[in-house]
Records
---
Amino acid sequence: VLMPTLPRQVAVFLLGLGLGVGITLGIDQLTIQNARTENEPTVPSRIEGLMIEGSPALGPIDAPVTVVEFSDFECPYCRGFHDEVLKPLRRDYIDKGLVRFVHKDLPLPFHREADLAARVARCSQANGNYWQTYERLFDRQSCLTCEGAAAVANPNTEVQKQLNRCANEGATRTLVNTDRSEAALNGIRATPTFIIGPTIGPGKHRGEVHEGAMPWPDFRQLVDEALSQANSSVDTTTEAR
């Protein structure tokens, strides 16, 4: 890290006075720490205009609360969410019409199979099998490197060929890259990341940002808070449910 001109001149001057290299090293270290702090991106606490139209979704389009997930099929923390949180969320909220759950892809560059897995899942969406593929990819996450995403998604070899062809098409790559670009534009860089808030429409979303996996009781509390916000925004003349 290059030190700004003025502090470096001061350091050289002090060194010339015989005050020792310790002061110079201290100034250098302070400059490095400041540079890291300035360059380190911050996680947004809230997002106002997230595009969700066309993304895979569970639950009714008019559910009072929407939960958007940015996820990576090779991420162990994302699998933890799938195993420990999504199942009770689906049972207690999504299936009861209280929550709409939306998936967006954020395959991380150091996960070698994640991008292909995301594309294979999107190809399954065209056949109406997205969420079955979603579950298989997480349930057999450890097999992605040895079998490949298409084989994990479907045991039928002909279907695997179709999935791989579709996954390599430009349009499929664009779907995943669009989610990746939107994550970058909104300051989302880790998986899993969730945006939770009252539903505002089928194509856009806004809400509080929560980065990282968490236990089901904590996640449920966030959903309940969003439901309270959604209910409080309803006309007060409407009878409470």
---
Amino acid sequence: MNNSEIRIGLIGSQSMHAWAFAKVCNEPDQNGNYRFPNARVTAIYGVDDTPEHLRVTKEKGRIPCSVSPLEELFEYCNAFMILQRRGGEHMAFAEEIIKRGCPVFIDKPVCGTEE
């Protein structure tokens, strides 16, 4: 991959959405073609998960590496998806990503409570 390609970093691996999104980007079809030729999930930060489930998610999604802490994710990625289940923690991650000028997608509501 070169610098013009989208290198997606996932934040959160507890939800099955992590490996599902990764699989869509990282798994070629029977002819070796990718659904999104210029996009790959390149790293995951399993902040909300057990090491064992993170390993399974990484394998199912064909994700090359897992990282910790969040700052390490920026070394591998130029776009991000926040997939963690706890909505109250989304904004802290999103703000850090936006400060760096990177695109971000948040899979769940950006809140934890009605307040």
